[in-house]
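User: I'm writing a tutorial on reading structure tokens. Could you give me a worked example: one chain, its sequence, then its tokens, then a sentence or two explaining what the tokens reveal?
Assistant: Sure. Here is the example chain.
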Amino acid sequence: MIDQWFKKDLNKIFEKHNTAVFIDPSGEAKFLLDTLPDDCRILQAHSNIEELELKYIIEKGSESSQKNLIYTQRPIDKLLFIREYCEIYGNVNIPDIYVYIKRKVYDTTKLNLNLDRNETIAAGMVSAGKPVDFWANLCRKGAEEIFDMTKELLPFLNNPEAYAATLTDDLLRDHFYRKATNILGQKYFPQPAKTLAKSLVTMMLDGLANNTGDKVLDTVYYSWLDSKSRFNSFVDYLKKYKLPAAADYKSAHPHHPFREIDEKYLAEIGQGINNSESISEHIARIKQRSLSKQAKSMGITFWADVLVLLDFDSKKISTLSSLSDCIKFYTKHFYKLDTALRNLYVEFLNKEELLRPLNDRYKGFIEEYGYKWFQYFNQYEENQTGTLQHIINENNNNNKKIAIIVGDAVSYEISESVAVVVNRQFKLTKKTIKSDFPSITENNISRIYMANGMTEKHQNKREKYLSAENSDKKIDYIMLNDVSEEAKPNPYLICTFKDIDDMGENQQQEALKYFPKTIDFLAQKIETLLKSGYTKVYLISDHGFVLTGPLRDSGKISLDFSGENQPAERYIRTVERQSFDKNYIYEAEKKHGDYNYAYFSKTINPFKTRGVYGFSHGGISSQELLTPLFCWENPLSSINPLKVQISNKADLKELAGEYFEIKIQSGPESDNLFATKRKVYLVFFVDGNQTAISDIFTIIPGETLTKEYSFDGQKNKEAQLRDADTKQVLDQVTVTQNSDRDLGGL
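And here are its predicted structure tokens:
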């Protein structure tokens, strides 16, 4: 505010003259020079010689419109050569900045400022750029309002020396340091900025560890964790801080940043994890911690997953009376346990003492649910065979582009995680596919592509089969990684995504740490497809997977099957029927080459094999067999905008010459708000490869636009007319050149 007062006093002179004098005998008001704009030239004179020099400079440039402010610390009665400027043009004389500030405050607010001299000057220095409320608060509340430490401490703690350098005036720096030292409850003494900052941060962290923090420091802590540009400095302080050995969850602040305290608490929960009364006592605290914004900022996010495991209600499992009930229960409730456990594996894969109790609790639920699943498993009938053909048939008559992502090991629970990330503006329909078994890629991918029920090892042959079965339709095949914002030309696009299975089989449970990025990648590609002209995007998968977690040898199923057999982690194929324990093993008559039977584990525990354990599939658990049939739709595709088409298709065949015209015609005007105009553009393809794209142009109802293009040495070009907003293909035509008809102008 003081900057405005000072400028107002100067402008009274500058409105009539280009030179003014600022007299500051004490030198205490010199800081006001820093508040002036760049277009004001400041000239200083503190002796007769300097006055004479300055007068010469001003007179030499007297024709200039440059504003000149003469600053001097000589009293007005001591001035010699510049005295006339004071008398003729005017001056701002501040013999005592303390009095100047108090008078200006009263004139502005009609309130008396009850601060001592140093406090008043310090307040003046920090008031530049602040509104009049700053002074009104000082008058009412006193010196505490000079520095709002809840705001000023953060830049200081982030970089103490850089902040201290901004306090150029000794009085101002002294006042700030005194206020900071007062927070520490210490008597003021000069100390380096870094030392003072370290003491303040230590006090902050001590207060968070024992919940006895200062209110100002707590407020700064919240702001610090919210600041992207300053967050790293907090992490650096935290790494150097030594947490008191006695610190625990009971005494800590609810929003503390200490992972060590959380892990100690989790270990205590693990010790009583089978005690329902003990667990219920922790639920409220865990809920609060799971919602803590500050904990999440520090990457402490596992409490939400712990809560899922601890708060899961398994009572409904006993009411399941059919396989259909089991499927509904899994896709509505139980999959959340799988997601929680997968996340917890990522957090504590190398801390078995923390993971094992959580894993054991999960396995207890698995056994309870698995009993019902296998009780009704004789009702199971796969409906995976011909999945792609079903989707194509379902969308055969809608004249809209459809994309299908065929995932490998994109389990149902992974798909639910993807659905959380995809923008909610897109409509989602969720269904479930019952996959064939054994749930292995070669078998299940074949079921998806081939409606004849055959098994095919090679992906290119599966694609050829599907294309042959749909010879009247055009299908593009692509790896999901290659999907871009530019849509492929054909109405159907099938995208292959193998990352999850590849990572899982190669790295086992270590791959789980990459799954969050994989989920984000899937969501991003779904959105890209929906924004690039595909009105529907399906996500399907061949099979899911199970995680065995910490596994002792006693947990592995060891069988001594007779005759020729082929063991795998989740199933064993045999030629002859075997004797087995029906409580743990499921038998299926499954013909595969010379093998006639397949035996599956009824638990998530694997058969004892030579392989690496952790991430596996092939079995018949709900996690492996229930796969997604998720469909996202772009709501814009259901709006009926202005109809636009290529009107001269018949004229674009057997053309002579190098150039051709495409006529684009819109429908008649209607009452539809979305049919008043439409932005469109043309995309050209040669042999399925995009070669050119036109500018975007706007067409209104009843209009025909004519656009001219050239063959560029190509005899056949496919032109697609697309909506500029949705990338939807509105119409298309193949343009052909007949060189025999080109008579060269004769």
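What the tokens reveal: Residues 639-741 form a domain with the Immunoglobulin-like fold (CATH 2.60.40.3880). The radius of gyration is 38 Å.
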